[in-house]
Design goal:
By secondary structure, this protein is α/β, with parallel strands linked by helices. The chain has 2 domains: 34-226 and 382-481, Alpha/Beta hydrolase fold, catalytic domain (Rossmann fold); 228-280, no CATH class. The protein is 33% helix and 19% strand. The chain is built from 16 helices and 16 strands. The strands form 3 sheets. Strands 1, 2, 3, 4, 7, 8, 10, 11, 13, 14, 15 and 16 form a 12-stranded mixed sheet that branches. A two-stranded antiparallel sheet has the order 5-6. Helix 3 packs across helix 4, helix 4 runs parallel beside helix 13 and helix 7 packs antiparallel against helix 8 (267-280).
Length: 486
């Protein structure tokens, strides 16, 4: 076809515009993710590959979700890909990365609150898988929203935003499309993960792109059934010797197993719950054997807390920083506050300028779930995901559910109760599993056609288990991923 001069100019203009558009999109894409070779506090370059970035989701991409991506230290071409969600909701992915399963952690021996040092974690789960650590929803970690309204969210919308994030991330990282994918989470995100997994299967069935190579999910100390998990605390405390037989019998006789939504006219139940509070008030619920720490540091650390994403900058006053209490695990978390809020760390992580006047906190109190409190910006619209687990038992899917057996936040007894309610076939009865010829916990295995579920306790573990028993949890993960029995 021959072109006139005018037609040729118009055609050339369209081609040039198209090339220009692709270049702009490419530039935006390149700027949205960065390779991080080292971070302040770490000596030398990382011996692993770390990438950080933002991906927009929601209406007009008004929610900007921040992620850390660590390639497997084994064989990233073939090893599984994992999307990891920290609990809360509103707790930063950096907490899971630093304190639980990530490739670097705080070097406490050589750190001060003013200057935290980092060291490699020999029991990182990145030894076995490539992991995306995601700050979700907006208001968690370094994730933010462009409008005040976009900070208001709930379980259902957070599920969809995470699902859309995953699809966009895989489109941006096509070389991982064929890797087996697992969703992993702990604590409150036990509510979200089975919902997200179901969305992935549904999306694959209707041909939504890209096709996601979903294989299963893993949940640690997971909140699953709000009422059942809470009501398992008192039986757990009794089993662990924290409540006498007489007190426990009185509670059961008067409250009939309901300790959360108590009839205000049931004065006897209320009385015995007050007795229980006196017995358990100074027990550290995340790990009942560890010391209950003085709250003075928590009060001093109020400068690290924020409500619904205040955009007014509150400067960090290093002279007000509390000093660590010996043997107090909660104080270990304070190191991350000054580290993540320092300008050089934010520059190294490539945090957006829009975040300059917002402080990073480990857990955003305006989002974080508590059984008996309403929060400002998050609606808990899904109180149980047992039905979602039940639906997934009809899929070709693998599940690993594990519990630190000294966790009284989400006791293993409540987790076992909802697993048993799925009416799966027990193929391996309760038995010990071992690491270095020592009992690392106890396990059971269940089947239903192409669905399998492994349950494991982690002996001595708390909320959440890898923070307390890193070596054992890595061994558990590696065996489960390779279909080796625990």
């Amino acid at each position: 076809m021959a072109y006139t001069s005018l037609q040729f100019l118009r055609f050339s203009s369209r081609v040039c515009f198209g090339v220009f558009f692709l270049l702009v999109v490419s530039a935006e894409f390149i700027e949205s993710r960065f390779l991080v070779k080292s971070l302040p506090g770490f000596l030398g370059d990382f011996p692993f590959t770390l990438e950080t970035g933002y991906i927009g989701v929601g209406e007009s991409d008004d929610v900007q979700l921040f992620y850390y991506f660590v390639e497997s230290e084994g064989n990233p071409k073939d090893d599984p890909l994992m999307l990891w969600l920290t609990g809360g909701p509103g707790c930063s992915a950096l907490s899971g990365l630093l304190y639980e399963i990530g490739p670097f952690t705080i070097d406490y021996a050589n750190s001060t609150f003013e200057k935290a040092m980092l060291e490699t974690n020999p029991h990182s789960w990145t030894k076995a898988a490539s992991i995306i650590f995601l700050d979700q929803p907006a208001g968690s970690g370094f994730s933010y929203a462009k409008t005040p309204e976009a900070y208001i969210t709930n379980d259902t919308s957070s599920t969809m935003q995470t699902y859309h994030f995953l699809k966009k991330w895989l489109i941006d990282h096509p070389k991982f499309l064929n890797n087996p994918l697992y969703l992993g989470a702990d604590s409150y995100s036990g509510i979200l993960v089975p919902m997200i997994v179901q969305e992935i299967y549904k999306g694959n069935e209707v041909g939504e792109g890209p096709h996601i190579n979903i294989k299963g999910y893993m949940l640690g100390n997971p909140l699953t059934d709000t009422s059942g998990d809470y009501n398992s605390r008192i039986p757990f405390a009794h089993r662990m010797g924290l409540l006498s037989d007489a007190i426990y019998k009185s509670i059961e006789d008067s409250c009939h197993g309901e300790h959360l939504n108590v009839d205000p006219n049931n004065s006897l139940c209320i009385h015995y719950l007050q007795v229980v509070d006196k017995c358990l008030g100074r027990i550290r619920k995340p790990q009942i054997l560890e010391p209950f720490c003085d709250t003075s540091n928590a009060l001093k650390s109020d400068l690290f807390r924020r409500g619904l994403r205040s955009f007014v900058k509150t400067p960090l006053d290093m002279w007000l920083l509390p000093q660590p209490q010996k043997g107090c695990r909660d104080d270990n978390y304070l190191y991350s506050y000054t580290w993540a809020n320092s300008r050089d760390v934010r520059e190294a992580l490539n945090i957006r300028e829009e975040f300059n006047d917002i402080e990073w906190v480990r857990c955003n109190e305006s989002l974080k779930y508590d059984f008996d409190k309403e929060v400002i910006s998050y609606t808990h619209d899904v109180l149980s995901t047992v039905t979602y687990h039940r639906h997934l038992t009809g899929r070709n899917c693998r599940a690993l559910v594990y519990s630190g057996d000294h966790d009284m936040v989400v006791p293993y007894m409540g987790t076992l109760n909802w697993i048993e309610s799925l009416n799966l076939l027990v193929v391996n009865e309760w038995r010990p599993w071992f690491v270095d010829e020592q009992v690392a916990g106890y396990t059971m295995q269940y089947l239903k056609q192409d669905y399998s579920l492994t349950f494991a306790t982690v002996k001595g573990g708390g909320h959440t288990a890898p923070e307390y028993k890193a070596k054992e949890c890595l061994s558990m993960l590696m065996r489960w991923l390779t279909n080796d029995p625990l």
